[in-house]
Design a protein that fits this description.
Blueprint (H helix, E strand, L loop, with lengths): L1 E10 L3 H10 L10 E2 L3 E5 L6 H10 L4 E8 L8 H5 L5 H4 L7 E3 L2 E4 L9 H11 L5 E5 L12 E6 L4 E6 L2 E6 L10 H10 L5 E4 L6 H9 L4 E6 L2 H13 L6 E5 L2 H8 L6 E4 L9 H7 L5 E10 L4 H13 L5 E13 L2 E10 L1
Helix pairs in contact: 6-7, 9-10
């Protein structure tokens, strides 16, 4: 059955990001199906987005249009955690249930609010029922911290393990999320950056992790050379395994070591493009990224965090000054929000053309 409703239209290439943001803003109409045509995707929403919400969407896609569209009603109802637990928890606790989980392979990672700590096993069992392909449920037991960007995790349901095989954009990644940082929420960014790479480029991925940027670039471009650097020995071992698994070992070269030292010793002036996905500390390595670029310049993809006290504009100003200190010049730069990381905090990316 078809129904007219308010919807957001955006280009297919931006669809995944806009859907994720609409979910985070809790305005997706889950009674209606997302629609697609040759070039666009149409996302049903429960109400007209506010001006502030529209600003967020437009940061992520310039071609946003909100109007009335025709959507197909969902025939298959996906059960929610609240529905599964409505007879097991009181209303005030149902209201603070997590609304989503990070799915890495067949592992679900969720954040349990303090009020629900004593009910975490019950919630874990409900997650197993809600996500049919999930075999392990892990609860976040701390914030991402340390030089390896890891967090403590606790098994609350299913198999007691943290290693899995994750599939994304036609690639497969062996990963142990207790030993190496990995975020499925960056799936769109992995694909976006890979689509910007040209054949025969040399790419330096300064904080490569298990290889979601590097491997996808190698998989989709036959004549590239990607130097994938990370200082976490476990991450580099998974990266090596993933280059073999995806048959890109002749294009992706894992390197264990500190990014600045590796650039100084091995990668000075080789790169057409540098990826800096270490938002907590990327600003400290702008000098290394600039040194990695070829003398004639290239592109830097710089990731950082913004919040109410540090806007995108402020972060961009800091980045420009850091580049200029390296006797480089920014020809052009564009910024966009990538994902929400906390209330009023977002990860952002800057794509900068530098000479």
């Amino acid at each position: 059955m078809m129904r007219q409703s308010t919807g957001i239209r955006t280009q297919k290439t931006n669809g995944e990001t806009i859907i994720r943001t609409a979910n985070q803003l809790k305005i997706i109409d889950k009674e209606l199906e997302i629609q697609k045509d040759e070039g666009f995707i149409y996302i049903p929403v429960t109400r007209q987005p506010t001006n502030a919400e529209l600003d967020i969407f437009q940061e992520q896609s310039a071609n946003i249009e909100v109007s009335t569209y025709t959507f197909k009603e969902r025939t298959k109802h996906s059960v929610t955690l609240a529905e599964l637990l409505q007879d097991r928890l009181p209303p005030h606790l149902l209201a603070v249930l997590p609304h989503s989980a990070d799915i890495v392979g067949d592992i679900a990672v969720i954040e349990i609010p303090q009020e629900l700590e004593s009910h975490k096993v019950l919630i874990g069992e409900a997650v197993l029922k809600a996500y049919k392909n999930v075999k392990t449920v892990l609860a976040k037991a701390g914030a991402v911290s340390g030089v390896y960007r890891l967090r403590e995790l606790e098994t609350i349901a299913g198999e007691n393990r943290t290693a899995t095989l994750h599939k994304e954009h036609g690639c497969q990644y062996c990963v142990d999320i207790a030993k190496a940082y990995f975020s499925p929420r960056l799936s769109y960014e992995h694909n976006r950056v890979a689509s910007l790479v040209n054949e025969s480029e040399t790419v330096v991925d300064l904080f490569a992790g298990v290889g979601p940027f590097a491997v996808l670039i190698g998989k989709t471009h036959k004549t590239v050379k990607v130097y994938a650097v990370d200082m976490n020995p476990d991450a580099v071992e998974f990266l090596k395994r993933n280059t073999r698994l995806n048959r890109v070992e002749n294009r992706v070269y894992p390197i264990l070591g500190d990014a600045r030292q590796v650039v100084e010793q091995r990668l000075h002036g080789v790169a057409d493009r540098v990826i800096m996905n270490l938002p907590e500390k990327a600003m400290e390595f702008v000098d290394a990224a600039c040194k990695a670029l070829k003398p004639e310049g290239g592109v830097i993809h710089f990731y950082g965090f913004v919040d109410a006290s540090n806007s995108v504009e402020n972060l961009q100003t800091q980045f420009v000054k850091a580049v200029e200190k390296c006797d480089r010049k920014i020809v052009s730069v564009s910024s966009k929000l990538v994902r929400a990381t906390a209330p009023y905090e977002w990860q952002t990316v800057m794509d900068a053309k530098i000479v």
